Amino acid sequence: MKDSSTRIIPRMAKGRRNRFFAAEGVDELLSMVLELTAEVSTLRERQYAMERVLEQHNLPVGEAVESWEPTEGDEAHLAADRERLLSTVLRTLEAQPKEEEQVETAAQDQTRAA
Amino acid sequence: MTQATPDVIRPRFTRDEKARKSFTSSLRAHVLGTQARRMREHYDEVVQPQFQRTHGRLPADGQEVRSVMKRERDFHFFSSVRSCAQEMVFASVIPAVERDMEELASRASELARDEQGVGGSLTLDPNFQVPENVTRLDVHLAPGSFHAEWGDDDVSAGAIYDSATRVFAFRQFGDDMNDIGMTMSNFVRLRYPDFKPTKILDCGCTVGHNTLPWATTFPDAEMHAIDVGPGLLRYAHARAQALEIPVHFHQMSATNMAFEDNSFDVVFSSMFLHELPLKDIKAFFKEAYRVLRPGGLLINMELPPNSRTEPYQSFHLDWDTYYNNEPHYKPFRDQDYPSLCVGAGFEADDCIEVTLPRYTFVGEEEFSQSVHKPAVFDNSTGRMNPKGTRWYGFGAFKAGEKA
User: Fold this and answer.
1) CA–CA gap between residue B36 and residue B304 (Å, rounded)
2) Is A104 exposed, middle or buried (0-12, 13-18, 19+ CB in 10 A)?
3) Which residues of chain A does B150 touch, with a Cβ-Cβ cutoff of 8 Å?
4) Looking at the partner chain, which of A9, A37, A49 has a beta carbon nearest the beta carbon of B144?
5) For B222-238, what is the mean pLDDT?
6) How many Cα atoms sit within 13 Å of B28 on the Cβ side?
7) Which percentage of chain B shows pLDDT scores above 70?
8) Mutate to test the interface with A, among B77, B80, B98, B326 (most CBs of A within 10 A)
9) For residues B345 and B292, is the Cβ–Cβ distance under 8 A?
10) Is residue B183 pLDDT above 50, yes or no?
11) Test the B interface: residue of A4, A42, A47 with most B CBs within 10 Å
12) pLDDT in tens, B310-333
């Protein structure tokens, strides 16, 4: 995978990007959500393909996955994983300042307003 | 016989890149289907009645619909998603094209040597100035627009256009991407059975998706095609050679052609005029008139004019002028099309206007019944509608008997 410094063909049209929402950043956010959805879709397709390929090799993994039951250990692992994912995705909404941090926040507000 | 791009000239996409292209096509189909329908319902139920209460009348044209829809949340979401989808169309194909750039260039050069004896040709003009309507903006939000070159003998612009248009079209241009050319060429064959073109020109041919059908519908005719982008033309030529369809590609502006007077029986264009500023459109019509033989036909596949579409449909179709780097789209659609023909020397009585079902979708039998029917204007005309698009065409015969 080429990083942006070695790319030859740009990935975006030149000029200013379209903007439709009055609130700052909403158009960009929507773009990120759609790109993320593209990633999820790509992963789902790969997983589907993988199950079909394994079936072709006489490993009916699709059925096995459907009838698979997690152990207590698995449950704990998966629950922790879901929690980690939620706190990652919702970080900007959930990271409210604690009481002891409020002085600092007020100072930041002052700086930013200047 | 298939006219799908052969593997030899296609970039190799990974499994994940293929999945990403499919997703982007689905996203386009969704925003232009489900989301567009919801937006229309919101207009019918809320926005239009509100307009009527305020003004005591319905919106008169697309501009008035736009002025009120611009404030609506549904329009913001529709437009933002549609705009993202358009960016993603190109982002989904560029990495593979970039990776295979040198390989594709060398394969194209090999095909251009014509060891198979196909008989097509490619003429590039090293002093050619690509017109400003192509260079000023990245048309369609395509990085590099139609003309950028990224390497020696580069075909990337063509490979990007070919693959991206397939993603963009979500199958609405036919399995071989050539439905527009199939529809218009078979219209001419079936509607005018005594008209036997021997020399045909496609203007603004890009990669030749809609050029090749003319060559196969009229196999005895000499086929020429012009465009301004060198990468598009190299790719178009290689693609035609690989499909063993002889076409002569030239780097040339449709507003100033190097062809002799009275040299073609058909001048064709598709989805081309709306990318040109009005002065260039007028220059193209004059050039088309000049190079046509008496009795020859100018036929343009295009979006229908605003005078033929209801206000909401006009608003919907003109979206691209504001958000897809196609500033000439609405000014073109605001024109009186027969006047463009008459202004270039064609007779008013010789003008034609058609709306046609898609040839490769409905088949020869149903299609042949439709070629004599009068034009129909509704929300299937000129719009990519999986439930039944009708392509729009207009043009004129050049007066005088064929010599």
Assistant:
1) 19
2) exposed
3) 8-9
4) A9
5) 98
6) 25
7) 99
8) B80
9) no
10) yes
11) A42
12) 999 999 999 999 999 999 999 999
Supply the mean pLDDT for chain B: 96
User: Could you count the other beta carbons within 10 Å of the beta carbon of residue B317?
Assistant: 22
In order of A42, B86, B343, the CA distances from B139 in angstroms are: 28, 11, 28
Find the CB nearest A9 among B16, B84, B156. Answer: B156
The interface residues of chain A toward chain B in range 31-90, judged by CB-CB distance below 8 A, are 31, 34-35, 37-38, 41-42, 45-46, 49
B23 neighbourhood in chain A, CB within 8 Å: 37-38, 41-42
Which pLDDT tens digit goes with each residue over B16-62?
A: 999 999 999 999 999 999 899 999 999 999 999 999 999 999 999 99
Of A13, A26, A45, the CB nearest to B325: A13
Give the Cα separation of B292 and B222 in Å (integer).
Answer: 14
Put the strands of the sheet holding B264-270 in their side by side order.
B121-123, B248-251, B222-227, B199-203, B264-270, B292-302, B390-397, B351-357
For chain B, domains (ranges, CATH) are 1-403 (3.40.50.150)
For B138, the closest of A8, A15, A42 (CB atoms) is: A15
- CB distance B181 to B213 below 8 Å: yes
Is the per-residue pLDDT at A103 higher than 70?
A: no
Cα maximum dimension of chain A: 68
Return the closest-CA partner of residue B348 out of B334, B337, B360.
Answer: B337
Most A-contacting residue of B20, B21, B23, B136 (CB-CB within 10 A), to test interface: B23
Flag if B144 and A10 touch (Cβ within 8 Å).
yes
pLDDT on residue A1: 47
- Contact (CB, 8 A) for B120 and B240: yes
Query: What is the number of other CB atoms lying within 10 angstroms of the CB of residue B27?
Result: 25
The fraction of chain A above a pLDDT of 70, given in percent, is: 82
Residue B115 confidence (pLDDT) above 90: no
- For residue B349, give both structure tokens: 């009585």
Average pLDDT, chain A: 84
Closest A-chain CA to B31: A34
Q: Where are the alpha helices (DSSP H) in B43-198?
A: 48-55, 62-69, 73-91, 94-99, 101-112, 132-135, 156-169, 179-191
Residue found by looking up tokens 């100072």 in the block: A107
Q: Which residues of chain A lie closer than 8 angstroms to B19, CB-CB?
A: 41-42, 45-46
CB B383 within 8 A of CB B389: yes
- Residue matched to tokens 């002891």: A100
